[in-house]
Design a protein that fits this description.
mainly alpha, transmembrane, transmembrane helix, magnesium ion transmembrane transporter activity, EmrE-like
Length: 346
Amino acid sequence: MWLVGVGLVLAGLAAGTCGMHLIRKSELKSQSGELCIAAGMFLNLAIGPALDVSGYAFAPASIISPFTGFNIIANSLVAPITLGEQVTRCRCIGIGIVFVTATLSVFFNKETQTQRWTLERAQEVLLQWRVTAYGIVFVLWLAINVRVLACCPHGSAIRGFCLGAISGSLAGNMWCTRLAAVFLKDCFNGSCGKTWGNWLPWLISAGAAFFAIANVPYMQRALRKYEALFIVTVFQGSSILTNSLSAVIVLRELDGEPWWKLLGYFFCIGGMIVGMLVLTFGEEDDAVKTSRGDSHHAGLVKSSDSKSSAIMEFVHVGAKILGTVYYAGAGRRLHSRNTGTGVKAT
């Protein structure tokens, strides 16, 4: 069944990449720009996440994440045709390193995945110190990127990397999607009331929705200034990196494996980082600007996307999603209470 999961996630990635290309296209064509960006946002906010949730119901994150590297190659083949972008030497090397190391990591996964997620097991796994440590490091990583983003001028390759890395890192936290998909699958098995009567599935679903939505503004901002061959590779590489790390640290999908498998898996993760660094440092400012171009003066102006505005985006999106989930859960409890009261009165 894991092949079904991989296929659904790859379909979601294809939809997401098409959405990114449409967003990039909206900056290059003034006449059909609004239509392109609307279609691109729809693919990234609706179709892609829906296919992801379906896919992660059938396969673990540690198996799915390496296969997502094929999306990088597909993007490098399609972008020159649809967007007229050039595959430079550094781009080719960086894309190749990320793809090869992401694909090789599949050989260090478990041969058979026998883990079955239940509500009790999810509570046991998520209430561990390693999950807290992962969360702290992840927040620090985002904070560093936001800080650098606020200081870098428009057109800088470092700025483009930060935008792609923030977006990809947020999107790559698929451990929430994995657990939410398993809990949603329980509804089809007749145990919906028992599972969703607990607070944990609601919190995990809120996290999955947050990571799926919060990455889009940064991805959109990046594609408005930088070419898809650069941004999509950084985005996808960061997503694979975060997905792989969260599968090992949060979901503990490689616990009990021999040391050489863990070493090989983390070696591949290190290779992905090297590939993204090669891509970033080899990216020239004039090669990543839009065809409209920026003036010399505009290139020296610091980003208008300050650190405070970037943080407010997280707060705004998170508040909306948590509020929606809270009221949905409160409504469910109120309905159950009223039903119970009615039964007693009868």
